[in-house]
Amino acid sequence: MASRMIRVMATALAGLAMVAAATGPAFAEDGYRLWLRQQAPVPAPDRIAVTAPSPKLALARAELARALPATVASVTLARSDDPRVVHLRLPTRSLGDEGYLVRTVTLDGAATILVTGHSDRAILYGSFALLRHLATGGAASGIALSSTPRVKLRVLDHWDNLDGSVERGYAGASLWDWWTLPDFRDPRYTDYARANASIGINGTVLNNVNAKADSLTAPYIAKAATLADVFRPWGIKVYLSARFSAPIELGGLKTADPRDPAVAAWWRSKADEIYRAIPDFGGFLVKANSEGQPGPRDYNATHADGANMLARAVAPHGGVVMWRAFVYADTDPEDRAKQAYTEFRPLDGSFDDNVLVQVKNGPIDFQPREPFHPLFGAMPKTPLMPEFQITREYLGFATHLAYLGPLFTEVLDAQTGRRPDQTVADVIDGRADHHALSGMAGVANIGRDRDWSGSTFNQANWYAFGRLAWDPGLSARDIAREWALQTFDARAADTVVAMMMPSREAVVDYTGPLGLAHLMGTSAHYGPAPWVSDLQRPEWNPVYYHRADRQGIGFDRTASGSDAIAQYAPSLARRYADPQTTPLDELLWFHHLPWTYALSTGRTLWDEMVHRYDAGVAAVAVMAREWDTLKPVVDAERWQKTATFLQIQQREAQWWRDASLAYWMSINGLPLPVGVTPPAQDLAWFQARHVPYAPGNPG
Ligand code: BDP
Asked: Which stretches make up the Glycosyl hydrolase family 67 catalytic domain (predicted)?
């Protein structure tokens, strides 16, 4: 009987195996492996020598064993204080805690690739750098790599809620399963940490900036502690978003006034409790007095009062506070673009040493294009931590293809004008002003989707953020190439890079060219709605931003308007004061101009706008054609999903273009330039179109 059962099962299994062989396994190549796809034909741990074993070096060794090509005969992992390494007199002095050096050397008479640094974490980073080098076409001989991160805190901000939803998340539910934590350690937590470590990310804020106080209760601290345990060997610290009013909600106090000693004592004891569970807890991220969140301004205290009070609670444990400058108030009639600077600049010099002020890349809110935030360079006594949005709330979610490398580098490379040749990257690495702290934050685009980020190309934005946080001087194109070579077959790389590089500009063109911003649908922030004018708060309405009327369009931020330009260094302010010297890409951000205004392109403003909308749509068609050519060299599942997403993008780029043009024409009464295709529908049709149940929408 038993043997019959076994025979039946064996036959069934053989059948299954045949089906699998014929069709390929269901999840052959679904993007789960991200950019870490290299696999050694035969894993060979014996090719990797570890001189002083430790948990981190065991991980480094496993990574190398898993992916080291056969061309590499020997790798040695050893700390810089290992006598044999000391003997080599390598230039390790300035590597810092996390920098690595990877060299082909001779040890004990034999050639080996030495991966070294002052810490095991550095060696882990060096191991990933070696694999990256080899996977992107680097030679296996004569290796000489060395790098030290320019930025200390390289942090992902998860806007993940305790109910498993993710605010502005487009890749499925939250990765953190709070319900089964702290007991169940989902293997994905390890895979997440590993992916982050491979690009140098060393911190993660687990919960949404729109925080619930519950995250600070004992059960949730225990859950966070489990995640911290999983992440620790990968060099990743856990941080929490703190709700400023938690002393009232959890502590039963009557106030959360930061100057009240009982409030400060509550936070101190809360910090002590967290550090007992998570000894290397990173600290707090705080969104205060912004979009309805509580904060020190509720008590007429300043943001510095609030930040410092929390900073003093975590300081004895080595923690930091990342205090967001993303503030604007409905009660303030001031141009929204000016409010953060107005509020924070006077506070320069009044923050404690363990506070970083976290500043969005632009003065409004993660728009497809914004000039850099005027606070960069204007608060030299304060470490400023730029905040980028990797999840693309305003750039087509996960469905549209938009590589953000060029957006990130455009900001990082921008000259502040405050000091000769000073860029935003120079400000944020903190060296010029001798800050002990520096940081860069990215709002994560990670969820439970098999491919983590909702699409294969979206993984590139996570990757690019990590690489730039490590070295804000890298080029977006080099990063794209690196990513492409690790993510696809090498034969696809040139085309993939060619698709990626103009992709963000295409989104700018079909959603809001020439410096326009904030034209999207209400709440979900998806699709065009430049006509919206009936929302309660003025700065919620797209019409607040574009100010289009019969004569012209754009927001006058010169001295005749809001004078936001005065928040920039004088040399930049002068440049922005004149539409002739303002970069075309930022023109309508700073100026209100007649539709007939003549541009350097030889077109009128209106004609240029139309031209750019069309260019954006056309660029998507080009990407789709390029992707088609890759069908033979990309695995079926990833190819098909991307091809389908490009079709969606094509349709929606057209929607943006048509709806926007229909609206602008209803305002300016101008005809379309000769030969331009009119919108497919009339304005009313577009205005009636709604997108219910869009993902990531908290409302
Ligand atoms: C806005 C998002 C909102 C966030 C806010 C923030 O729409 O969901 O809470 O940014 O950064 O862009 O706090």
From this structure: 136-452
Tens of pLDDT, residue by residue over 3-37, are 444 444 444 444 444 433 444 445 579 999 999 99
Residue of the nearest CA to atom 2 in ligand 1?
Answer: 168
Residue labelled with tokens 């010099």 = 349
Q: Is 168 near ligand 1, meaning CB less than 6 Å away?
A: yes
Query: Of ligand 1's atoms, which has the minimum distance to the CA of residue 209?
Result: 13
Kindly state whether residues 218 and 113 are assigned to the same domain: no
Q: How far is CA 100 from the centre of its chain?
A: 24
Instruction: Tell the residue nearest (CA) to atom 11 of ligand 1.
Output: 326
Distance between CA atoms of 282 and 266, rounded to whole angstroms? 19
Residue 568 lies in a domain: no
Which residues, in sequence order, are bridge partners of residue 441?
155, 387
138 with 163, same domain? no
Asked if 402 and 395 touch (Cβ cutoff 8 Å), the reply is yes
Task: Name the residue at shortest CA distance from atom 12 of ligand 1.
Answer: 365
Answer yes or no: do 73 and 159 share one domain: no
Tell me, using a 6 A CB cutoff, whether residue 524 lines ligand 1: no
> Rounded to whole angstroms, how far apart are CA atoms 524 and 168?
9
* Polymer length in residues for the chain: 699
What is the number of domains present in the chain? Answer: 3
Give pLDDT tens digits for 185-239.
999 999 999 999 999 999 999 999 999 999 999 999 999 999 999 999 999 999 9
Report if residue 359 sits inside a domain: yes
- CATH of residue 250: 3.20.20.80
Is the CB of residue 476 less than 8 Å from the CB of residue 409?
yes
The answer to the question of residue 13 being in a domain is no
Instruction: Give the catalytic positions in this structure.
Output: 291, 365, 393
Q: Quick one: which H or E segment has residue 115?
A: strand 110-117
Q: Are 101 and 92 in contact (CB under 8 A)?
A: yes
| Beta-carbon count within 10 A of 678 CB | 12
The verdict on 111 and 201 lying in the same domain is no
Question: Range of 339's domain?
Answer: 154-448+461-471
pTM over 0.70: yes
551 & 618 share domain: yes
Q: State the angle between helix axes of 503-511 and 405-412 in degrees (0 to 180), rounded to the nearest 10.
A: 90
